[in-house]
Design a protein that fits this description.
three-stranded antiparallel β-sheet; six-stranded mixed β-sheet; 356 residues; Creatine Amidinohydrolase, Chain A, domain 1; alpha+beta; 10 helices; Creatine Amidinohydrolase; single chain
Length: 356
């Protein structure tokens, strides 16, 4: 995967001579090689990947002939390498990641290069909003692993199993099915703790009559999956079923409203209206969904304050919830790919109420 040409077109349109990328996900997006350390410079005509001896051989094999890989070491440290590239290429207008770099790092690069950096985080993030076909391949693969892990874990949900044990099983199953890692620490909460949207798994044991909420995801090709399912153990009361059915109805309404060109607020509002009409409006405190890709939380969001049209090929979560403090909560989450025709739901796991 290599998005060099797209970035070059964007920096030309922005009037920049080059773009400096330090954030590891942005470097991967630009050059197609992941590493924990390094830098990428994209000029109007060339790409440069600077890394150290730990990654030099792998980088040379991965990036192809469109990107020049350069070694940094004691004799040629990173910033000296970067400064030489900028000088050789005649760069005067250099964009940088004002949102990823710390203030101290930003100033240090300006001092090293002897030039002011131009804040350009929005440029790279704007490109990353619209997923390319090769990115969608990884996103679908990550979601498939997550779906399969959920199916494998369902039979393990029973009274006496702790939240932490179930979280460990989810991680193990995703890794065994081919995941490169988790996209975030899994949330597994049961009973009263299910009213906490971001509760932390602990030694609480599942009991008959509980809801169990599982929010988890994995990485494939560097791209994230994300899904949430809430299941009942043994039985569910009439109120539990009412809350569950309301959340499901809200999620389906939001998905039906979702398409490229519709604002994030409109998508959120379609789901929020369902929950409000059912009398639970005050118990839905977060937004309907967030974009995801190389990071688990990206932009744009399907949120009340987003009045901008959602771009075509955005990948966004659909995750309304109702949380009754001290009692129980329900969240159902899928991932959807927005097109002009509507929302393609990537998540394939069933979402009618499951009683195990």
């Amino acid at each position: 995967m290599n998005n060099l040409k797209r970035i070059q077109d964007a920096i030309c349109a922005a009037g920049l001579d080059a773009l400096l990328l330090i954030d590891p996900r942005n470097r991967y997006y630009a050059a197609g090689f992941p590493s924990s350390d390094g830098a990428v410079v994209v000029t109007r005509t060339r790409g440069y990947y600077i890394t150290d001896s730990r990654y030099i051989e792998a980088a040379q094999a991965a990036v192809g002939d469109t990107v020049e890989v350069l070694l940094c070491d004691r004799e040629n440290p990173m910033r000296a390498r970067l400064k030489a590239i900028l000088s050789d290429c005649g760069v005067e207008k250099l964009g940088a990641e004002d949102g990823s770099l710390t203030y101290d790092e930003y100033l240090a690069y300006e001092r090293s290069f002897g030039m002011k950096l131009i804040p350009s985080q929005k440029l790279i993030l704007g490109l990353r909003q619209c997923k390319q076909p090769e990115e969608l391949v990884f996103l679908r693969a990550a979601q498939d692993i997550t779906d399969r892990a959920f199916a494998e874990v369902l039979p393990l949900i029973r009274p006496g199993v702790t939240e932490q044990e179930l979280a460990a099983e989810l991680v193990y199953r995703m890794l065994r099915l081919g995941a490169e890692g988790t996209s975030f620490d899994p949330i597994v909460v049961t009973g009263k703790k299910s009213s906490m949207p971001h509760g932390v798994p602990g030694d609480v044991k599942i009991q008959a009559g509980d809801f169990v909420t599982m929010d988890f995801g994995c990485l494939k090709g560097g791209y994230c999956s994300d899904m949430t399912r809430t299941v009942a153990v043994g039985s569910a009361t009439e109120e539990m079923r009412k809350v569950y059915d309301t959340v499901l109805e809200a999620q389906l309404a939001g998905i039906a409203a979702a398409r490229a060109g519709v604002t994030g607020a409109e998508i959120d509002g379609a789901a929020r209206d369902v929950i409000t009409r059912a009398g639970y409006g005050e118990y839905f405190g977060h937004s309907f969904g967030h974009s995801l890709g190389l990071y688990i939380h990206e932009s744009p969001n399907a949120a009340p304050n987003n009045h901008e049209p959602m771009p075509e090929h955005t990948v966004c979560s659909a995750e309304p919830g109702i949380y009754l403090p001290g009692r129980f909560g329900v969240r159902i989450e899928d991932v959807m790919h927005l097109t002009r025709a509507g929302a393609e739901v990537l998540t394939q796991s069933p979402k009618d109420l499951i009683v195990v």
